[in-house]
Amino acid sequence: MNIFPTLHTERLRLRELTPHDAPALFAIYRDAEAMPWFGIDPMTDISQAHALIATFAHWRTQANPGTRWGLEYAGELMGTCGLFKWNRQWNSCALACELAPSARGSGLMSEALRSVLDWGFAQMQLHRVEALVHPRNLPSQALLGRLGFTREGVLREAGFWAGGYQDLHVFSLLAHEHVKVSR
Questions:
Q1: Residues 6+ positions from 180 with CB-CB distance below 8 Å
Q2: Where is the N-acetyltransferase domain (predicted)?
């Protein structure tokens, strides 16, 4: 996990986040309407975006590392996605993502996640990727379905934000299922 893995798709460059990205990341994370889906409260200060970028960079140095890509489209940061909580012994990790409101519905996240999943299954030798999604976040559930994920069940009150405990749906994708979807 020494050199950051820059990925390219038809429309995107998936790259390491830098302090220069803080204003765009802050704009995404201060969106109060979207925050119930992100699992955190909205940002109120740009310093929080700088801290989040530092957190994402720090993930790569952990015993169970993670990689968070910035999604660059037409020279602008439109969101992030990543694989984290990598359990090397179990060959598993978690997936998370968010997208700027102006880019939602464009297919950019689907394009990005296909590339990230390809990379994760090949380079990290993953067997399983899981994602946690709020029950009312229907667009993310549909996206995971298009990528071949299976809904496994509900983690009752597994998250806490917006002043209360939140149920989360758990979805998973296994390596042999990803191969079927990629073709």
A1: 148
A2: 12-177
Each residue of 1-48: pLDDT tens digit? Answer: 568 999 999 999 999 999 999 999 999 999 877 776 777 788 999 999
pLDDT of 163-173, one tens digit each? 899 999 999 99
Domain extent, residue 45, equals 7-130
Distance, in Å, from the CA atom of 101 to the CA atom of 28, rounded to the nearest integer, reads 7
CB of 44 closer than 8 Å to CB of 33: no
**CATH number of domain containing 44:** 3.40.630.30
Number of domains in the chain: 1
**The token pair that represents 117 in the structure block:** 């999943």
The span from the CA of 97 to the CA of 95, in Å, is 7
Residue 108: inside a domain: yes
Contacts of 82 (CB under 8 A, 6+ apart): 56, 59, 66, 67, 68, 69, 95, 96, 97, 116
What is the rounded CA–CA span in Å between residue 49 and residue 80? Answer: 12
The reply to whether 163 falls in a domain is no
Is residue 45 situated within a structural domain?
Answer: yes
Taking Cα atoms as reference points, which of 58, 59, 126, 70 lies closest to residue 97? 70
Query: Rounded to an integer, what distance in angstroms lies between the CA atom of residue 156 and that of residue 149?
Result: 20
